[in-house]
Structure to design on (415 residues):
């Protein structure tokens, strides 16, 4: 286990989640504990179908654990945590709304006043590099630009934590390289409210390239197999021998 | 403008290509690059040609190498990249021509059909639809042009 020097910011304590399927109890997560520190970039990796996305939804409070607790800043989390933004694998954009309107959705839903909405939407559209695309509709955008809309929408509610559910898996390989870089730039940008990122991915290389710590999950019912700290200097180089060693290790834990 | 937005080489893809080249030590063999990236030949050539037109790569013989500008853009932040690409786009004949056409209009805009027609006349060797998609997409990225899909007109982005 990795030792934590900072006080836990976000904690999962002995979380179980059981889904009932036609009367049969189907355990998805069993006895899972995890600490995330403020300012940390944590990746959750595991075999497909291992319940990574369920775990992300438990962190956000969209799904309640069957037993166990989620603590945020030492307080028991009940319901959706408003301090978290989510970036989805499939972008989750409304096709009939343009870029500006899609980005503003979260703020509108929170009842933010129109002046603040205009200011914030303009600021985050600029930050993710979407200025100039405000009136474009999703069908006019490449995958990379669609995911920038997803990012701007998640960031403009000014969350402390960004959750990302396989955010690059619907993008081509080259666009993925660019977007990974840009997400890291935003994470380190002092003007961003987001300091902490939890990302689900099934790509080991992506987890090592981006995160401070890789949490390896087991098959269902999911629990933490091992946590691996990545101390490689940034920006990271895939040709670094240590990079190879880490990916071999994670691969052997998953397979 | 409906249609597949991936018919043109997007900026994120071009920057990704530059990153791959930088990681490979600054260049490589064009054929091998296509194999490594699992790119179909037509797609690879379109992408490489786009990166070359912006001054980010050179393709001597069957090779591809990053230029200094290609290395520079990778070091920039998100808006630094936009700024550099805007400067490069302004050197491209098709963007210069369209900017001039639009500037002569009172409302700084023209219907898409008119632009396509003039593109066919002025750049007969190019595919007008591909050129138009690049104009809209790179133009938006560079904050040079705006495009109203419902009215199908292209206009000069005056940064309101």
């Amino acid at each position: 286990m990795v030792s934590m020097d900072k006080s836990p910011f976000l904690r999962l304590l002995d979380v179980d989640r059981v889904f009932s399927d036609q009367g049969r109890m189907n355990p998805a997560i069993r006895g899972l504990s995890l600490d995330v520190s403020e300012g940390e970039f944590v990746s959750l990796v595991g075999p497909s179908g291992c319940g990574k996305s369920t775990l992300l939804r438990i962190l956000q409070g969209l799904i309640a654990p069957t037993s166990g607790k989620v603590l945020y800043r030492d307080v028991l989390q009940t319901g959706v945590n408003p301090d978290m933004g989510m970036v989805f694998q499939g972008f989750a954009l409304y096709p009939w709304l343009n870029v500006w309107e899609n980005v503003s959705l979260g703020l509108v839903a929170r009842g933010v006043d129109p002046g603040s909405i205009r200011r914030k939407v303009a600021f985050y559209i600029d930050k993710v590099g979407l200025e100039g695309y405000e009136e474009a509709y999703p069908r006019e955008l490449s995958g990379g630009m669609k995911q920038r809309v997803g990012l701007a929408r998640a960031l403009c509610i000014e969350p402390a934590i960004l959750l990302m559910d396989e955010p690059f898996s619907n993008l081509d390989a080259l666009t993925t390289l660019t977007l990974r870089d840009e997400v890291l730039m935003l994470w380190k940008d002092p003007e961003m409210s987001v300091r902490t990122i939890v990302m689900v991915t099934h790509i080991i290389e992506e987890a090592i390239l981006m995160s401070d710590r890789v949490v390896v999950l087991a098959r269902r019912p999911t629990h933490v197999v091992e946590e691996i700290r990545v101390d490689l200097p940034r920006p990271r180089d895939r040709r670094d021998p240590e990079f190879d060693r880490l990916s071999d290790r994670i691969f052997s834990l998953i397979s | 403008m409906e249609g597949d937005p991936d018919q043109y080489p997007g900026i994120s893809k071009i920057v990704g290509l530059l990153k791959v080249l930088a990681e490979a030590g600054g260049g490589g063999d064009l054929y091998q690059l296509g194999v490594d990236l699992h790119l179909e030949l037509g797609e690879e050539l379109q992408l490489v040609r786009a990166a070359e037109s912006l001054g980010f790569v050179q393709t001597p013989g069957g090779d591809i190498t990053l230029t200094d500008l290609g290395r520079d853009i990778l070091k920039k932040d998100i808006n630094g990249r936009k700024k550099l690409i805007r400067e490069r786009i302004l050197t491209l004949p098709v963007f210069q021509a369209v900017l001039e056409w639009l500037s002569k209009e009172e409302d700084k805009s023209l219907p898409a059909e008119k632009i396509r027609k003039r593109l066919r006349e002025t750049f007969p060797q190019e595919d007008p639809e591909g050129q138009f998609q690049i104009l809209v997409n790179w133009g938006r990225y560079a904050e040079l042009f705006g495009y109203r899909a419902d009215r199908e007109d292209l206009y000069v982005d005056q940064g309101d």
Observations:
- The first strand of chain B starts at residue 27 and ends at 29.
